């Protein structure tokens, strides 16, 4: 086990950056967050972002002179390399379930909630900076299907996999926190009581109080 601080390359408003932060907070890992590493700025749109990630994505974890990419891999590494509460079950089947949900969240759920829906409100690209409602409407059916899937999964336990907070919850939390705080999405949660209660539980965790804060863009 190691105690050396880690650096998370990325902007704090990013959902995936926040997921890595949540893992650090849950395990008591010292960390910093920022778009600079070794004096080099790694910002969206800059060519420098490809020096750490072959596809120019964030977050990137820097630890002991090495760097690691892709949020699920980063979170699993943090859980294995540092002391603190375990974020993955020991039992093989349950651990595989966490891996399964982590993959689905990072791919399909992120696409439906963040890429196809939320980003249209955060960075609208319509005429005069307006939201393109036709894109929002097109994204809504898949978004509702994803939320219903999460609602069904929560019938099995307090968290996504059983009754303990795991990496899967760390990845889900920032997406759902943003979505449930969006006025345009209020009606989506009316018939999803388990999901509403789940978001409430996530927000009450001490880690969330430090990470799920009002975003600053720019």
Structural write-up:
There is one protein chain. The protein is an alpha+beta fold. It has two domains: 76 residues, Glutaredoxin (3-Layer(aba) Sandwich); 119 residues, Glutathione S-transferase Yfyf (Class Pi), Chain A, domain 2. Helix content is 50%, strand content 9%. A four-stranded mixed beta sheet has the order 2-1-5-6, with helices on one face. Strands 3-4 form a two-stranded antiparallel ribbon. A hairpin with a 2-residue loop joins β5 and β6. α1 packs parallel to α2, α3 packs antiparallel against α4 and α3 packs parallel to α5.
> What's the level 1 CATH class of the largest domain?
Mainly Alpha
What gross morphology would you assign? Answer: globular
Figure out the total of helices. 7
Low-pLDDT parts are none
Give the strand tally.
6
Strand order of the largest sheet: 2-1-5-6
Number of domains: 2
CATH architecture of the largest domain, by name, is Up-down Bundle
What is the CA-CA span between the terminal residues? 36 Å
- Along the chain, the helix and strand elements come as EHEEEEEHHHHHH
Compute the CA-based radius of gyration. 17 Å
Query: How many strands, which pairing sense, and closed or not: the largest β-sheet?
Result: 4 strands, mixed
Fold-level CATH name of the largest domain? Glutathione S-transferase Yfyf (Class Pi), Chain A, domain 2
Mean pLDDT: 92
Structural class: alpha+beta
Residue fraction in strands: 5-15%
Proportion of helical residues: 40-55%
Write a short abstract of this structure:
It comes from Granulosicoccus antarcticus IMCC3135. One of its GO terms (molecular function) is glutathione binding. This protein is α+β, with helices and mostly antiparallel strands.
